[in-house]
Write a structure and sequence with these properties.
The protein is of the alpha/beta class and about 450 residues long. It has 13 helices and 19 strands.
């Protein structure tokens, strides 16, 4: 029985893609292992959003050369976004690399793995095509990400509803690595959710590069409701589903129908991740983000008015080309004013073949780091205040199992996506539990189950 190891870099979309690959290999009799040294097949599912992710994956594959020297029969492969962006150039300098598979071909990985294992097993070294590179586009690839491998008593799952992005932000490589927007049908998505719920999943998160623009090219509005709102309502109606989330949206996709839905669907969790990227209108325009800081602030206020209990998180890029001190000050001021529950702060990282990579005004890393650390302090303070407000209150959490930091404790998330750690005499994975919050420590809450 061949054994395989997958390491995933990057976003939830990549995690979902890795689950699909694992499921397809397990269906064919392969066994998943937790360390590359135990594997006959080593796969790295890569990310290209930032240079650091590229370098980590390349460094990891470079270290695999030691395994290849000892066990030349092992198959090594790159999957995903970096594979899509760099293609067969990845074989240079990595003589043990056997396979490069792009973002529209995850459903082909099991075939390629078995082909390469057979070639290595029979020592057909004279085969001129011992390596495989497949980064071609494939029509209908959005419909291939369906089945996934679930752990015992897994409470949550990701469901991919679309692939690709048409927005072409000047800093972003995703349109190149993921292609144009392509959406699955509502029927297919609902069927997948029903299957997950039947297997014990309580919460699903709908995934898309710009999730709230789902179906805008394929499906019509019905009763002034966008295809995404229609999808939310259809998934919400699945019997047995306890919670529904979605990520990651774009501010321009928040129309009146979606804002109203946040208030009307009780299963829809009170958490919105709303990427800001910059608080400077000049920088937003250079980023090709089609909204202003004023419109973003107005949208936050409308969301909070519709759903007063909502937690809002965001993404911000500091050090974008041409960002002056005054631009950064506007970003800082807006982040301070909004008081996000949390935020991911990124130093701008040039990505090949994006307009921003060759733009004038590239900033020194020192300035990027200073602004990154400064904004992190602002965000940390607002996140701590949000958590402190929950001390002494009762919250509902979905228990996800053992805390990764302390095997003696359990952990789960509130509807507003805050982590809660608690002690209990039995495993309550998959259960909705009422917790009395006693302490806020950093980004986690601690409490006891309500009897």
């Amino acid at each position: 029985m061949p054994k395989f190891y997958i390491k995933t870099y990057g976003c939830q979309m990549n995690e979902r893609d890795s689950e699909q690959v694992a499921h397809s290999l397990i269906e064919r009799g392969h066994q998943q292992v937790t360390h590359e040294h135990d594997a006959d097949v080593v796969l790295l599912n890569t990310c290209s959003v930032r240079d650091m992710a590229d370098q980590k994956a390349l460094g990891k594959m470079g270290m695999m050369g030691q395994i290849a020297k000892q066990r030349p029969e092992v198959v090594f492969g790159f999957l995903g976004c970096m594979a899509q962006a760099r293609g067969d150039s990845l074989f240079k300098g990595l003589p043990h690399l056997d396979m490069v598979v792009g973002t529209q071909k995850f459903h082909r990985v099991a075939d390629y793995v078995e082909e390469l294992l057979e070639k290595k097993r029979t020592r057909r070294m004279d085969d001129p095509r011992l390596s495989i590179c497949d980064t071609a586009e494939e029509a209908g690839s959005q419909e291939t990400i369906r089945e996934q491998q679930l752990a015992p008593r897994q409470a949550t799952a990701f469901v991919s509803i679309m692939q690709g992005c048409n927005m072409h932000c000047t800093f972003c490589i995703v349109p190149r690595t993921r292609g144009v927007e392509r959406s699955r049908s509502i029927h297919e998505i609902v069927q997948e959710v029903r299957g997950l719920v039947a297997r014990g999943v309580q919460e699903v998160t709908l995934l898309g590069q710009i999730v709230n623009l789902y179906g805008r090219h394929e499906f019509p509005k019905i009763g002034n409701k966008s295809p995404f709102v229609q999808l939310l309502e259809a998934v919400h109606a699945v019997e047995g589903l306890a919670r529904l989330r979605f990520t990651s949206p774009h501010p321009i996709g928040f129309r009146d129908d979606l804002i109203q839905t946040l208030a009307e669907l009780p299963k829809l969790a009170e958490h919105v991740h709303l990427p800001l990227q910059s608080g400077s209108n000049r920088i937003l325009k250079a980023m090709h983000r089609p909204y202003s800081a004023e419109k973003y602030l107005s949208l936050v206020e409308r969301i909070r008015q519709a759903q007063p209990h909502v937690a809002i998180t965001t993404d911000v890029i500091v050090g974008f080309p041409g960002e002056e001190e005054s631009d950064y000050a506007q970003t800082r001021e807006l982040v301070e004013r909004i008081q996000f529950d949390n935020a991911f702060i990124f130093r701008y990282s040039p990505r090949a073949e994006t307009p921003a990579a060759t733009a004038a005004g590239q900033l020194p890393e020192l300035i990027k780091e200073q602004r990154n650390q400064d904004l992190l302090r602002v965000v940390d303070a607002s996140a701590h205040r949000a958590n402190d407000r929950l001390v002494g209150r009762q919250v509902e959490i979905l228990c996800e199992g053992t805390s990764p930091r302390n095997a003696a404790r359990l952990m789960g998330r509130t509807r507003t996506n805050k982590i809660v750690v608690f002690e209990n005499e039995r495993d309550r994975a998959g259960e909705l539990v009422q917790i009395h919050v006693q302490q806020a420590n950093g980004f986690s809450l601690y409490g006891t189950p309500v009897v």
